[in-house]
């Protein structure tokens, strides 16, 4: 529960907090374009919003925060932009890992890191290893992540076990598939997407089966604490039925 006074209505409310929030951080390019800047400047500015979102998630008591940083489809962008995006995780961790670690944050990565440049891979591996025993916020970076790719990997790994005889086809159930996904985190309760687009773009397809969706027009570099809390307020106004009545 999170105590919160709505700045518009001045009404105090107790918000129940979703355990797992996932954010599609979209609109960096448009933010830059609006200012006549190159797209990469939008990505740089977006890092500040990442910091603020992590702080807010901790303040609210969210268990896991998954951030969509680079999709399996984002490789089709101009090479200059891709190479800039690939440098950001290392830059971010160089400045922030120490503090995250002190705050007991556990850093995780979902996605195929084998395709990342070596320096990027080493930086994220170091962050994972250093924070592996931390018990605070789970901060998951979806990096070279695709929901379909994740399901393909899971199915391959099950197929290997079926072939070797350690798993029978009848034993395959949704728990087994869930356990073989890259994220190893629980189902998503709330997906937030910035920039006005209303689609999932291959994000957490399996884990979002019953997620609530919150779309905001705010571009990612402008997404601040108040917008995050707004999303939590909107989540509180929903009735989750999970197929029941
Ligand atoms: C999101 O912003 C960041 C990544 C996809 C890496 P975009 O770069 O997609 O920004 P827009 O959608 O072009 O404005
Ligand atoms: C989704 O945004 C990927 C990330 C935020 C990392 P995109 O901007 O790549 O998605 P589309 O192309 O608009 O669907
Ligand atoms: Mg986009």
TrEMBL record:
SUPFAM superfamilies found in the cross-reference section: Undecaprenyl diphosphate synthase
Transmembrane region(s): none
GO MF entries: ditrans,polycis-undecaprenyl-diphosphate synthase [(2E,6E)-farnesyl-diphosphate specific] activity; magnesium ion binding; manganese ion binding
UniProt keyword list: Magnesium, Metal-binding, Transferase
Top-tier EC class: transferase
Binding site for substrate: 27-31, 39, 43, 71-73, 75, 77, 193, 199-201
A Gene Ontology biological process term: polyprenol biosynthetic process
Signal peptide: none
Cofactor remark from the record: Binds 2 magnesium ions per subunit.
Keyword ATP-binding set for record: no
PROSITE patterns recorded: UPP_SYNTHASE
Binding site for Mg(2+): 26, 212
Residues forming the catalytic site: 26, 74 (proton acceptor)
Cofactor: Mg(2+)
Subunit structure, interactors included: Homodimer.
Function, as annotated: Catalyzes the condensation of isopentenyl diphosphate (IPP) with allylic pyrophosphates generating different type of terpenoids.
Family label: Belongs to the UPP synthase family.
Name under which the protein is recorded: Isoprenyl transferase
Organism: Exiguobacterium sp. (strain ATCC BAA-1283 / AT1b)
Lineage, highest ranks first: Bacteria, Bacillati, Bacillota, Bacilli, Bacillales
């Amino acid at each position: 529960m999170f105590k919160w006074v709505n700045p518009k209505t001045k009404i105090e409310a107790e918000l129940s907090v979703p355990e797992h929030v996932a954010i599609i951080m979209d609109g960096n390019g448009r933010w830059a374009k609006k200012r006549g800047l190159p797209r990469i400047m939008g990505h740089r500015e977006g890092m500040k919003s990442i910091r603020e979102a992590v702080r807010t998630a901790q303040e609210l008591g969210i268990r896991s925060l998954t951030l969509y940083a680079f999709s399996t489809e984002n490789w089709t962008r101009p090479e200059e932009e891709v190479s800039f995006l690939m440098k950001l995780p290392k830059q971010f961790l160089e400045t922030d890992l120490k503090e995250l670690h002190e705050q007991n944050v556990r850093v995780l990565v979902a996605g195929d890191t084998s395709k990342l440049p070596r320096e990027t891979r080493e930086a994220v591996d170091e962050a994972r290893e250093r924070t592996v025993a931390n018990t605070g916020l789970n901060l998951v970076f979806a990096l070279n992540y695709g929901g379909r790719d994740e399901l393909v990997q899971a199915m391959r790994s099950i197929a290997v076990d079926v072939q070797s005889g350690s798993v029978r086809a009848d034993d395959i159930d949704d728990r087994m598939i869930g356990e073989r996904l890259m994220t190893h985190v629980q189902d998503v309760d709330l997906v937030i997407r910035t920039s006005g687009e209303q689609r999932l773009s291959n994000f957490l397809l399996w884990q979002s089966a019953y997620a609530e969706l919150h779309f905001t027009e705010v571009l990612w570099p402008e997404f601040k604490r108040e917008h995050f809390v707004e999303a939590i307020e909107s989540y509180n106004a929903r009735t989750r039925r999970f197929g029941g009545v």
